[in-house]
Amino acid sequence: QKEVEQNSGPLSVPEGAIASLNCTYSDRGSQSFFWYRQYSGKSPELIMSIYSNGDKEDGRFTAQLNKASQYVSLLIRDSQPSDSATYLCAVNMYSGGGADGLTFGKGTHLIIQP
Amino acid sequence: DTAVSQTPKYLVTQMGNDKSIKCEQNLGHDTMYWYKQDSKKFLKIMFSYNNKELIINETVPNRFSPKSPDKAHLNLHINSLELGDSAVYFCASSQGLGGASYGYTFGSGTRLTVV
């Protein structure tokens, strides 16, 4: 069973602080990892992708990947009220020779308190 | 100029009816998907097409039938609608199988309500 696990929250963070979102996945052979942001009533929007162990930074966002621990995280620095949304972790899990599409976690609801 | 467009945006229908949702992408991607997002916001893959060929067919009732007339279009037809089919259905596209390189681009979703 291929699974992506996230704490559903809500995760409440004061404005200006660092928000830390975590995700674990079950398939050790997974190759590609993504973070999507979804505002209420809107479609998911890709904000970060990561493929290698370590950190990847893009503006206020940092994605961290540890394949040995099967763990992905997203850090949001200087959190803003506009960052309040549901954050979805997605993992590309391969089986056999084919691609199985992205498996999504259930999302973490992040609330940034002004 | 919308990259992935879905129609209709809202669909309210009675149990037992048959309905279709259409999706078109102008990104030149070769893979398209249907995902279902339930009331708890869980996104679950239903189908995937690569260059008009069905690649992924998850365990969904056979009342759901996808059709891809060309690689820019993927439609979803649902027969004999049930209350449990109420959800938001998202179309997505990617370059390459599984969105391995660039992830997905999602359409705006179709909110289906079965009454």
Textual characterization of the structure:
The complex is a heterodimer of chains A (114) and B (115). Chain A is mostly beta strands and 114 residues long. Helices cover 0% and strands 59% of the residues of chain A. Chain A contains no helices and 11 strands. In chain A, strand 9 and strand 10 form a beta hairpin. Chain A is globular, with a radius of gyration of 14 Å. The mean pLDDT of chain A is 91. Chain B is an all-beta fold. Chain B is 0% helix and 55% strand. Chain B has strands spanning 4-7, 10-13, 19-25, 31-37, 43-50, 53-57, 64-70, 73-78, 87-94, 105-106, 110-114. In chain B, the strands form 2 sheets. In chain B, strands 2, 4, 5, 6, 9, 10 and 11 form a 7-stranded mixed sheet that branches. Chain B has a 4-stranded antiparallel sheet with strand order 1-3-8-7, with no helix packed on it. Chain B is globular. The N and C termini of chain B lie far apart (34 Å). The model of chain B has no long low-confidence stretch (mean pLDDT 90). The chains are: A mainly beta (114), B mainly beta (115).
